[in-house]
Amino acid sequence: MAPMGIRLSPLGVAVFCLLGLGVLYHLYSGFLAGRFSLFGLGGEPGGGAAGPAASADGGTVDLREMLAVSVLAAVRGGEEVRRVRESNVLHEKSKGKTREGADDKMTSGDVLSNRKMFYLLKTAFPSVQINTEEHVDAADQEVILWDRKIPEDILKEIATPQEVPAESVTVWIDPLDATQEYTEDLRKYVTTMVCVAVNGKPVLGVIHKPFSEYTGYKVLALLDVPDKSQEKADLYIHVTYIKKWDICAGNAILKALGGHMTTLSGEEISYTGSDGIEGGLLASIRMNHQALVRKLPDLEKTGHK
Questions:
Q1: Does the chain have fewer CB atoms within 10 Å around its N or its C terminus?
Q2: R_g (Cα) of the chain, nearest Å
Q3: Which of the residues are catalytic?
Q4: The predicted structure's pLDDT at residue 232
Q5: Which tens digit of pLDDT belongs to each residue from 1-54?
Q6: At residue 24, what are phi and psi to the nearest 5 degrees?
Q7: What integer pLDDT is reported at residue 170 of this predicted model?
Q8: d(CA 23, CA 166)
Q9: Which pLDDT tens digit goes with each residue over 205-221?
C-alpha cells in the first residue's frame, strides 16, 4: 500500500514512517530499529516499592520486566522471520480478504514468529491478557523461558520497580508487520512489534526490524535522524478499519515523542476489548491535535463505511 500522509513542513527530530497497514511501520527507519519507548514509566505506576514481578494468581507485574521481555520477544520473533525469509520457503497463503478487498496474507514467518513471541510473553507473565494477530494453536504450545534479568540500559533509566496490577495489563503482538512486502522480499519494511497497555493506555512500545544492521536497544530520545532521505511528516490520517496490533506500539512511541493519536472524532484509543478500530485514526506531532480533529468532520463518517 502506498504511504498515506499530509506533509505540512519538514521535521528534523520526529519522524512518522507510514508504510503499509502499521501507522508507524518502522519509525525512524534505520535508527529506531529494535529500539523502544518508555512512556509514562517515570510517574504513576509503581512508587518505588519492590513487589512480585509476575504472579500466576494475578498479583502485580513490574513494567521494567515487561519491557525487557517485550524487547526479547520482538527479537526472537524477528529471528524466525529472518530465518524463514532466507530459506525462501514461505508457505504463503491467504487468510481471506481485507475490508478493502485485498488478500490478507500469512506465511510461515508470521506463524513461527507468533509462536515464539506469544509463548515467551505468556510463560513470563501468565496472568496478563495477550492479544496477537495470528491464531495461537494450543496443540502447538511451547514453553520459552526467560532468565528474569533486566538489561542494564533499562535499569539505568528506570531504577525502581514500576508495579501495576496484572489484570490492568493488555499486550498486543504483531509477529510480522508488512507481510505483503515480506513475500515480495522487500525486507526493509518488515517489523515485529509488541505493545503493552495499562488500563487501555499504551505505555510501552517495541518496534524491531529483523533485517536491519541495527540490533542494539537504547531508550528512545529526540535525536537527529541519520537517514536524510527518510520520509518526514507532521500528520497521518487513516480513514478505514485498522487493527490495534498494527498501531499500539507506534502509539506508545508517538506519545513518548510528545505526539498524539486518536480516532478521527478525537477520542483516545483504548487498547482493551475489540481488536480493531472502526472510526479511522489521526496521528500528529507538534501540532494542535484537537484543532485538526475539528477540521476533519467528514472523514470520521468515511471510516465507518
A1: C
A2: 18
A3: 110, 179
A4: 59
A5: 333 333 333 222 222 332 222 333 333 333 333 344 444 454 333 333 333 344
A6: -120, 70
A7: 95
A8: 28
A9: 888 889 985 543 333 33
